[in-house]
Design brief:
With 279 residues, the protein is α+β, with helices and mostly antiparallel strands. It has two domains: 3-165, no CATH class; 195-278, Phosphatidylinositol 3-kinase Catalytic Subunit, Chain A, domain 1 (Ubiquitin-like (UB roll), Roll). It is 61% helix and 7% strand. It has helices spanning 11-29, 36-59, 69-102, 107-117, 124-186, 221-224, 227-237, 244-248; strands spanning 207-210, 216-219, 252-256, 273-278. Strands 2-1-4-3 form a four-stranded mixed beta sheet. A hairpin with a 5-residue loop joins β1 and β2. The termini are far apart.
Amino acid sequence: MSLVAFTFGSLGDIIALLQLADQVRRALCDTRDASAEYKDLIAELYSVVYTITNVQRVLSIQGPRRLAQSVENALYHAVGVCLHLVAQMNERISTRRQAACSRGVVKMMVADVWWSIGWKLFKREEVLFLRKRLSGQVAAMNTLLTLAQSDQLDHVGDQVSRFYGDYIDESRRQYTLIQEIHRCVTNRPHAMGYTWEAAQNPDNMPIVFTDMLGHTVTLPWEFVGTNELLHEFLVFYFRNRPYRKLVEERQYFVTNEDNQKSSKSGGYIGLGAGSICME
């Protein structure tokens, strides 16, 4: 495979590198009597494949969890270096195999020859150099992946912290609301709805009226504090009831709970309970 076919900086490079690394690894594994340096190089190719697989997964992440551009660039650079080295190895392997085939050696014999001499393709110094360069790039990629994972953990930690802060704020609001509900329930008035319905001042307590039809009505003091207010309420109260005409003409009187008739003149009516009776 020609070296000029590769351009660095894309996920396509990662796929190409995975394919080439696997081809080179299998080609070197097919040799016999490989030296310790060769075996170390083969093991390093395993590491390259494993690490590049993780790099591919991380670089595929999009959205808020995507890596910083500087980290992506560094990873792509390391991928490019590995791709260049593995492509050089694959180029030499392909050249030697094509040379064996061009001499008219049958396929089975080519395999036998390769099994015998494949490990001699690279000098010891070349093997050590290739392994060192690949090992350095693998270490660099693993470091970048660790940093990326740390950044993601920090991001998750920030999200958890914000969620916890929001949870604490909401819990405080709920606690305040529960306290207020408890206070209201503990000190609830006899009649809910208005502050004056449970006034502690006896002069402002609600007034209970029983009309001539036997219906009992509880009225806030503000509605019947004077004769005029009382009359306005009675006109409204009897608008669809019997005796409406008499009420409108003020043909009624009000007695307290002791059956004492109240004054029909102006001023406040001091009644705690009373009956509306017709004159």
